[in-house]
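User: Show me a protein chain along with its predicted structure.
Assistant: Here is one chain, sequence first, then structure tokens.
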Amino acid sequence: MGRQELLDYLLKEVEKSGFEIFKVDIFPIPAVVNVDKKLMIYNSIDASPFEIAHELIHILNKDNHRGEYFDAINPQEVRANHEAILLLWEIFEVNGGNYEYFSVFVDTTDAPFDLAYSIISKEYSEMHEAITEIFEDEIKVIINKQEMHDYIVDYISWFDVIESVNIYQFLDHYHLNYCLYELAEKEFQKILNVA
């Protein structure tokens, strides 16, 4: 989805919320909404998808006392920025985007890079942790003790003398999940006769 298509989509979402939209090319700020009067004014030259999404979030949350335009300490503004990035990211992913194309996301939406990066990377980190937690038991079942034993025997066969073993390096070498650390540690101790 290109920039203009994204803008059109967001403006339609504003209209679906029952808001009247006024396009004013000489408006001094990119976009603003009045939730009580159900109207939005935007500068079609300066408004970016991020700014329209930001105003859409104000509409969805019924924010009517937001303070000044760039009031970064107002909780409603902070929330609108955060949720606008998540909304835009969801649209980006639905249209085939992913984390590898993060710079395309920022270029298309004009979302503030640092803020978008911190929010999206946190989302990915949390998603990865959740997936790992869901599949942790399944991974443990798939890698049984005999398979772990075979990996360890293969691994130590590459060394003439073993003074110490970095289990994380071992897991990385065989592309095993870190949740198998304890199983690997016990098996190393057993094979190397270390208590």
